[in-house]
Design a protein that fits this description.
Strand order of the largest sheet of chain A: 1-7-8-4-3-2
Largest sheet of chain B: 7 strands, mixed
Order of helices and strands of chain A: HHEHHEHHHEHEEEHEHEHHHH
Radius of gyration of chain A: 27 Å
Strand content of chain A: 5-15%
Oligomer: heterodimer
Distance between the termini of chain B: 58 Å
Number of helices of chain A: 14
Structural class of chain A: alpha/beta
Radius of gyration of chain B: 22 Å
Strand content of chain B: 5-15%
Helix content of chain A: 40-55%
Helix content of chain B: 25-40%
Shape of chain B: globular
Order of helices and strands of chain B: HEHEHEHEHHEHEHEHEEEHEEHEHHH
Number of strands of chain A: 8
Distance between the termini of chain A: 93 Å
Largest sheet of chain A: 6 strands, parallel
Chain lengths: 424, 392
């Protein structure tokens, strides 16, 4: 009788095969678990999360715009660097004017990109034009870098007849099919698993196209972020996850958003190649994105880039951040570590820019923005008929009836509605 | 989780005669009563005639008709991919058996266990222009994906001004009572999605219907949710065309014409109301018009209203809870329409035990509760005729 039988004298007989021990043939005791590839250890020790000395921050320029390690200089042409600078400053100018226009009641809402222009432009420049972009809402510089005209930025904010989105969404919810920038939606992090799906389709297509997905450190707390990371890794997708860690999710500082070492430290947990970069250093952002893109496509695996930066502006026009942070803190970033200033110092150092050009460009860019702005102001809003189209690809009978009912209602009671602002 | 499989397994073992499992402790239990255990909550699947219009047919049950539709799709559409939990080995309900071997592991693949990821990923595949067929293992587990479905998939085209869409996404999920599923393997969540313009919601009653409707959903340029009555996966068998064929969405079907009352249902309940129609004719002399709604959203309001003009009475039967169930939408639309279009008549609707009561099916008494709450022929036909049209 085996040992097992002796222990169970009073219970029903159990089939003998269950009681007999399996004979192991391996000489060493190596773990056989399917779930992990690891050795045994016989000392009880918990792994301490390392948040005092976290993942280091890759940078190319110091705060004065000097290249620290010449090997890391991306060696971009003057023309390219000027495009970086002009895009960042034009964005900044457009932000100032549109923020002000909301304050004056001309548009309903706005979100600025102050302080994060480097994350947009450095990453956008590293992509191919046909790489698909999924954003969150603070990536207008990516679209601007790809040549989206001021008219269309304004049209979307005003929701006028020129808006390719047909005036349906709140301001800053841009989208452009031709420039491969998927239309923004308000719910946070929903774009993350979607971006992974698109990357999977690109992989099957053998298109040599990557997908980049932007999100903030706050959105990274959403379940959709976890879902996206895990799917990208298990399904081996050519995707760049670009996290803009700007210190705040509205009023919530990072200390209340997570306890680990930011977002970059989560990557290895999913089996994802990860890096943390100085988001205010446009060359560092460029280098990291470029290399990640190259490898994501070549190796069909995801890359996670956490760009450390600071949100200089309020969360939106509905926010007053003096309620939860000091003016001194904001000023520090505005004056001491701003992506635009650092690039300007770099360009000045190279002899690629000077005060004259700065003055002239400021004037010119402001004029361009004001012209687009005045145009947008004058246009009508889209026809009310557009309330009903595109809900489905074809309009079902119920919606047709509702559309007709609205038309009848407006014929009778149109005087109570500001119809003069809308296209017929 | 192979819930249906477990149930069948257990029945088979206990029903067998002397053997190893009749020995010892098992032998001291009273034997199972012979014959079927379930009485009231039965339904009889009523197959349709073999179609002649679509070429060669083959005997298929519901899950096989789904496999056939998926096979046709993968064969004709090189961008099509199928994914979800456990689809690679064939799926917990065998709907994807053989497809991975036939079409490759890049086209039929498992995802991690994460419904919000499955649907979000599916949306992205569709946005990139490929055909995405996502499987949610049970409709009861679709809720983590509710945000992706309602806030994203449904609104993709509208919010982008038609610059982007995820029309090539279809989500499939097993649906409805199965007898022992209890709270979390029995739900019929169509009412939650009926409130969401931008998606389509479709529920077939049979293998023939399932294949044609699923193919239409996949072809349709809007994101679709396709609920498959799990109790029919094995139980429903018909001769189904091997080649693809398409049954139009948003078109209800009058299965039987009648003059006294309109009965409306979808999925499994269609077979219940068919039986009710027969009982009503035999026992009460009542002539029922039977309608399979098929598409919940957008639903065929015209067909139902037209029928109620004729009969003057309406009974809707669904498994889902009564309050806020889709029957409310149908009855309120019919009433609104009747008042507007037929002002000289009115419809008096009474409480009928047609719909599932407002409770989640209790775990401890799963089978008994499903018997009691599952709308059944005997309960539905216990309703007696009600006055309808006013004179004139």
């Amino acid at each position: 009788m085996s040992e097992g039988d002796a222990l169970l004298p009073h219970l029903c007989p159990v089939p003998q095969r269950v009681l007999r021990q399996q004979q192991f043939t391996s000489l060493e005791e190596k773990p056989q678990f399917p779930g992990a590839s690891a050795d045994f250890v016989d000392k009880l020790d918990f792994i301490q999360p390392n948040v005092i000395s976290g993942i280091p921050i890759y940078r190319v320029m110091d705060r004065q715009g000097q290249i620290i390690n010449p090997d890391e200089d991306p060696q971009l042409s003057q023309e390219q660097v000027l495009k970086f600078y002009k895009t960042m400053t034009l964005l900044n100018t457009m932000d100032r004017i549109l923020y002000e226009s909301q304050r004056q009641g001309r548009i309903s809402f706005y979100m600025t990109n102050y302080g994060e222009e480097g994350t947009h432009v450095g990453s956008a420049a590293a992509l191919d034009d046909t790489d698909l972009v999924f954003g969150q809402y603070r990536e207008a510089g990516v679209l601007m870098y790809r040549g989206y005209p001021l008219d269309l930025f304004m049209a979307q904010c005003y929701g006028n007849t020129s808006d390719t989105g047909k005036g349906r969404q709140m301001p800053v919810h841009y989208g452009c099919r031709d420039r491969h920038f998927v239309t923004i939606s308000s719910p946070l992090a929903t774009q993350i698993p979607q971006a992974v799906g698109a990357a999977y389709a690109f992989k099957r297509d053998n298109a040599s196209r990557a997908v980049i997905c932007y999100f903030g450190e706050g959105a990274a707390s959403e379940g959709d972020a976890h879902a996206g990371f895990n799917f990208a890794a298990t399904l081996e997708c050519p995707i760049l996850f670009f996290c803009r860690n700007n210190g705040y999710a509205i009023s919530t500082p990072t200390s209340e958003q997570y306890r680990g070492d930011g977002i970059a430290a989560r990557g290895p947990g999913y089996g994802i190649m990860s890096i943390r970069v100085d988001g205010n250093d446009v060359f560092a952002v460029y280098n990291a994105t470029r290399e990640a893109r190259r490898r994501a496509i070549a190796e069909n695996q995801p890359f996670l880039i956490e760009a450390m930066t600071y949100r200089i502006g309020h969360h939106s026009t509905s926010d007053d951040s003096s309620a939860y942070r000091s003016v001194d803190e904001v000023n520090y970033w505005d004056k001491q570590d701003h992506p635009i200033s650092r690039l300007r110092h770099h360009m000045l150092g190279r002899g690629w820019w000077d005060e004259e050009q700065e003055k002239s460009w400021r004037k010119k860019s402001r004029k361009r923005v004001m012209e687009a702005f005045e145009q947008a102001e004058r246009k009508l809003k889209p026809s009310p008929q557009h309330l009903f189209s595109d809900v489905y690809c074809e309009m079902p009978p119920q919606l047709q009836k509702q559309q007709e009912a609205l038309a009848r209602h407006l014929r009778l009671y149109g005087e109570h509605y500001p119809l003069e602002h809308f296209e017929k | 989780m192979a819930a249906a499989g477990l149930g069948l397994c257990r029945l088979a073992v206990l029903a067998s005669g002397p053997g190893p499992l009749r020995a010892g402790v098992w032998g001291r239990l009273p034997p199972l009563a012979a014959g079927p255990r379930r009485h009231a909550a039965h339904f009889t699947f009523q197959p349709d005639a073999e179609p002649s219009a679509h070429g060669q047919t083959q005997k298929m049950n519901l899950f096989q008709s789904i496999t056939s539709a998926l096979d046709n799709t993968l064969s004709r559409d090189p961008t099509a991919v199928i994914f979800g939990e456990d689809v690679a080995f064939g799926g917990v309900f065998r709907c994807t058996v053989g497809l991975r071997d036939k079409y490759g592991k890049d086209r039929v693949f498992n995802t991690p266990l994460c419904e919000q990821g499955i649907v979000g990923f599916g949306i992205g595949v569709a946005v990139a222009g490929a055909t995405a067929i996502a499987e949610i293992q049970f409709a009861d587990y679709i809720f983590p994906a509710f945000d992706q479905i309602v806030n994203e998939a449904a609104k993709y085209r509208y919010r982008s001004g038609d610059l982007f869409n995820c029309g090539s996404l279809t989500i499939r999920a097993p649906w409805g009572c199965v007898g022992h599923g209890a709270l979390y393997h029995s739900q019929s969540p169509e009412a939650f999605f009926a409130h969401c313009p931008g998606i389509k919601v479709v529920i077939p009653r049979s293998p023939l219907q399932a294949k044609g409707l699923l193919l239409s959903c996949i072809e349709d340029k809007n994101p679709c949710i396709f609920f498959e009555p799990k109790i029919l996966y094995r139980a429903a068998v018909e001769q189904v065309p091997v080649e693809p064929y398409y049954i139009p969405l948003s078109q209800a079907e009058v299965l039987q014409e009648g003059s006294d009352v309109t009965l409306v249902a979808w999925g499994t309940q269609v077979h219940v109301i068919r039986e009710v129609a027969t009982m009503a004719q035999e026992k009460l002399g009542v002539s029922c018009e039977v309608i399979d709604l098929k598409t919940i959203l957008p639903w065929d309001t015209e067909a139902v209203c037209k029928s109620v003009v004729k009969t003057g009475r309406l009974l809707i039967s669904h498994e889902a809870p009564l309050t806020g169930g889709f029957a409310s939408e149908i009855s309120s639309t019919v009433q609104r329409w009747a008042v507007r279009e037929q002002p000289r008549s009115f419809l008096q609707l009474e409480e009928v035990p047609g719909d599932g009561p407002d409770l989640a099916l209790g775990a401890a008494h799963a089978e008994e509760e499903e018997v009691l709450s599952f709308p059944s022929p005997s309960r539905t036909s216990s309703w007696s005729p009600v006055h309808s049209r006013s004179p004139g």
